[in-house]
Here is the input.
Amino acid sequence: MQKKQAPIGIYDSGVGGLTVWLALRQLINEDLIYYGDTAHVPYGDKSRDQILLYSHNIIHFLEEKKVLAVVAACNTSSALALPVVRVSSGMPIFGVIEPAVEKAIASTRNNRVGIIATVGTVNSGSYQRSFQQFAPSTEVFAQGCPKLVPLIERGEVEGLLVNQALHEYLDSLIDWGMDTLVLGCTHYPFLLPAIKRIVGEHISIVDPAWQTAKNVYDWLQGLPNVEEHEVPSYQFWVSGSPEEFQKRASQFLGFTLAQVGGHNQVELEPRELRDFLGQLWPAWRGDQDDSMEK
Ligand code: DGL
Here is the structure.
């Protein structure tokens, strides 16, 4: 496979986006720059303004690294920030929600789709709107799962706490009769064995990673090749502890990441944050207004 002229940026709040990174690494032969915002994980309980700031900062960081496009390998950022940051960035930015919805629509037979996601993603209504737009006859049951990301970031993907939390979130979806379950947070594929034991064999599980990577692949096909048969390089950056990220990533990927760089982000007080966002996006009107999410 041939290579394009610049790397692809990928970001998430932590290790979750590595599920998308894995799919990208398999499907495309490009340099990849991953950013894990581990100083701010979890994103799921943060306000839309905070998610906007974090997403903006990361995209800016990746722009400075001269990436060709960005993959928001995070449902919470895709739901809360992408409609806004896409307007201000000149680059293509791929999200994970539409690929997940596309796969779920293709998979469901009884039109009952369960979604597990962060509270921020569920409350944004992004999944619900997307199903409404592409398959209005689909019934959707979206369940916020605030306990899961902290467990995964601590490396706990099996055991009593994981099973208890999964039962708390999945039992009502199973009773409701879903035949398809969307993993609406990129961290959750790391829980796949535990989730499969609970939902059984008759419920299809949708992980948007592969479809997201496929969308990037298709887009790359339209660009000219500049080099041939180059071995791609992979960089990792985090806003928290590089050692912690390296440890967790090795646990989940089964190999050690060569080098993880540290990057400090500017922190803003709520008032400064409002002023900053207002300057960036003149149409932005604060956390209570959801008009820009549509
Ligand atoms: N992995 C992210 C998502 O897909 C972020 C989860 C979090 O940090 O709460 O939503």
